[in-house]
């Protein structure tokens, strides 16, 4: 049972949290319902098509596309973790969520986000090996290595996320139980606690440094090495071809990290901005990247684009 404490001579025991749609305009939540529903349908359709195409086409059973399939699974997991509460808030005005359900959603949101960050790092290594050692590419990255890499990235995300629910569960919540978004995040729940949250803040800082910040540094180093290798190629045509293989991955990196940096900047420096701006940034941060990744890879990767066109032409 959740902690029970004395607050203003009355017993307070928060068993639920309240999610927020459009701040101050709950009666207009339905305005966001249709766009969000469309985004989720596109996310499910796009990522499932990517998975189906990679699975059924043996020519796509290469490291680059296998990593892409893991990325698609991560996007699907993130969409399924957030879809019930976000659509519930905007479509049905179902804003109440139990404490346990909120902890569970928070765990899976962060798990899939950190997993996706790790997969982007693995894909950067994949592009580096493909450009530096094209003749030994398949030998250096067999399917067993890709499978172990995917499991290692998932295990890292699980280990980083595992303490979060327990660190929050020990806190008393005696004031407001209204969250800032239509889904649950660690930092959002922590700020509602009426106790010392130093341990939680240190945990969040260490987790970000050991995952997202470290991943960004590794990706940047990988692309410095890629550019160094590409610039050493004599033929302009071969340089262009090598760089073109990285375009989709660079777009995926920007799609993932730019909204994350944007919402962090808005929370830190944009407190004077309208609450609607905060709401829009929060929804973009969580709902847009999973829908854009399959679109980018379908448009920018010729092999996937051709397979998808053939699949629909047959039908």
Automatic annotation (TrEMBL):
Its main location: membrane. The chain crosses the membrane at residues 31-54, 66-91, 97-125, 145-168, 201-226, 247-269, 275-297. Pfam families: 7tm_4 (PF13853). InterPro entries: GPCR_Rhodpsn, GPCR_Rhodpsn_7TM, Olfact_rcpt, OR51/52/56-like. It is a multi-pass membrane protein. It is found in: Membrane. This is Olfactory receptor 51H1-like. Residues 46-297 form the G-protein coupled receptors family 1 profile domain. It comes from the Eukaryota. The keyword Transmembrane helix applies. It comes from Gekko japonicus (Schlegel's Japanese gecko). Keywords: Membrane, Olfaction, Sensory transduction, Transducer, Transmembrane, Transmembrane helix.
